[in-house]
Amino acid sequence: MALRLDRLLASQGPWSRKEAKGLIKAGRVRVGDRVARRPEERVDPLATPVFVDGEPLAYRRHRHVLVHKPPGVLSATRDPRAPTVLDLVPEELRRRDLGLAGRLDKDAEGLVLLTTDGELAHRLTHPRWKVEKVYEVLLDAPVGEAEARAFAEGLAGFAPAELLPLPGARARVILREGKHHQVKRMFRAVGRRVLRLLRVRLGPLELGDLPRGAARALSDDEEAALYRAVGL
Ligand code: URA
Questions:
Q1: Would the CB of 105 count as within 6 Å of ligand 1?
Q2: Which residues constitute the domain of residue 142?
Q3: What is this structure's pTM?
């Protein structure tokens, strides 16, 4: 699978095609044990290692990054006014084609997935694939069995969801669709206001102890489980 060297670099790293050409012209790219000079050279990255500034380019068709979004950060990849989840992704994990697999409100926090695989993102967010989204919420007043029943029956036009009341005014919610402001709207329908919303799971992916504001690549096992969850 031979690719043009400048294209290969632009598809794997943070560089544009123009920047990739610049790296090659500056002698900063090695193919095997020789310095590459021609951006149009065709290279098979699975057969021959490529290095940029001496660092091996790990060839991956796709990149998936899990981010712990803090409140105040936008679920977007660029915005002129506010920080975005892409700003939290370290340089070595960045790719220009990273996009969002689902969004959280600006004031919400927790697990957000960025991926270069558009079909994967589509399936993770489309209700047809029924991928579970799990949220922990803090409410303005406790909930109990009556509210759990209302969620289970499906309210305010939303599909049935699981509501597990927790001590205090806290609860855990499991959705299999992801409509705009859905958790807040479902609680509003039973007379509660969401004060804090944290997404802790997306399908097989757990937020775990990833610190707020941090980002990491998925492990191979997580990636395989994610693809299995949406039949890919
Ligand atoms: N439901 C909401 O109301 N907001 C989110 O960010 C996610 C789910």
A1: yes
A2: 132-202
A3: 0.87
